[in-house]
Design a protein that fits this description.
The protein has 248 residues and is α/β, with parallel strands linked by helices. It is built from 9 helices and 11 strands. It folds into 2 domains: 71 residues, Ribosomal protein L30/S12 (60s Ribosomal Protein L30, Chain: A, 2-Layer Sandwich), CATH 3.30.1330; 167 residues, 3-Layer(aba) Sandwich (Alpha/beta knot), CATH 3.40.1280.10.
Length: 248
């Protein structure tokens, strides 16, 4: 089944992403100059451009925040875990993967994907159950990162974690209680994966038990925690900082 993504940035990324675009729909009432780059990109790829009323686009994607641009493209293609690991091994780079456990808000998941892409993650792993899949809302919230970042959906997250560990990847989970240690005191160089749990419950107990270590973000103010996407950004870019320091 094909998908629709919407919004100027996600559509732009979708026109250059892994999936095959099928048709570009633009709001007939929107200033053409605002959407001209999208029209040019579609034309270069031989994609039909069709003008529609704003109401038709809203009905198409179930959301009025489409900014006058909707892209019809192939259904989202998840990457197999074995292929994800093979791509990393062939790259010759240190591993950096993001795993999510119980992220049900599509905006949070989209923001995490955007963070992961910006931090240079080689892929994101999400569970099929109790977690938001990749939808057009997730794609919009990711600013199009979902169209480039390899994303793997697994039936059993615990088994996926074990597979990562079997190939020499250290797995750390973000937590807010003992025995978690400060994110800034742990050596996060080398091959590693970070797990972000849900805001209310954190990681599931089985996921937590499989972690090689638990990390906390030291909080300096009156609130006790950050939301999942903010915490993910802090942790991912601490990894990036440490790796860059090691290389300099």
């Amino acid at each position: 089944m094909a998908d629709y993504i919407y919004g100027i940035n996600p559509v732009k990324e979708g026109l250059g992403g892994r999936r095959q675009p099928l048709e570009l729909f633009i709001d007939e009432a929107v200033d053409r100059d605002r959407l001209q780059q999208l029209i040019d990109l579609a034309t270069e790829r031989g994609i039909d451009v069709r003008r529609r009323r704003k109401e038709d686009l809203t009905r198409m994607v179930g959301n009025a925040h489409h900014q006058g641009a909707v892209l019809h493209l192939e259904a989202f293609d998840y990457v197999e875990l074995e292929d994800l690991l093979r791509q990393w091994q062939d790259s010759g780079r240190d591993a950096l993967f993001l795993l999510v456990d119980g992220i049900t808000d599509p905006h949070n998941l989209g923001a995490l994907l955007r963070n992961a892409d910006a931090a240079g993650c080689q892929g994101v792993i999400i569970p099929k159950d109790r977690n938001c899949p990749i939808t057009n809302v997730v794609d919009k919230a990711s600013a199009g990162a979902a169209e480039h970042l390899p994303i793997c959906q697994v039936t059993n997250l615990a088994r996926a974690i074990q597979q990562l560990k079997d190939v020499g990847i250290w797995v750390y989970g973000l937590a807010a209680d003992e025995p978690a240690v400060s994110l800034y005191k742990e050596n996060l160089r080398g091959n590693l994966a970070l797990i972000i749990g849900s805001e209310g419950q954190g990681m599931r107990q089985r996921t937590r038990a499989l972690c090689d270590g638990l990390l906390e973000i030291p909080m300096q103010g009156g609130v006790s925690s950050l939301n999942a996407s903010a915490a993910g950004a802090v942790a991912l870019f601490e990894v990036v900082r440490q790796k860059m320091c090691a290389e300099s």
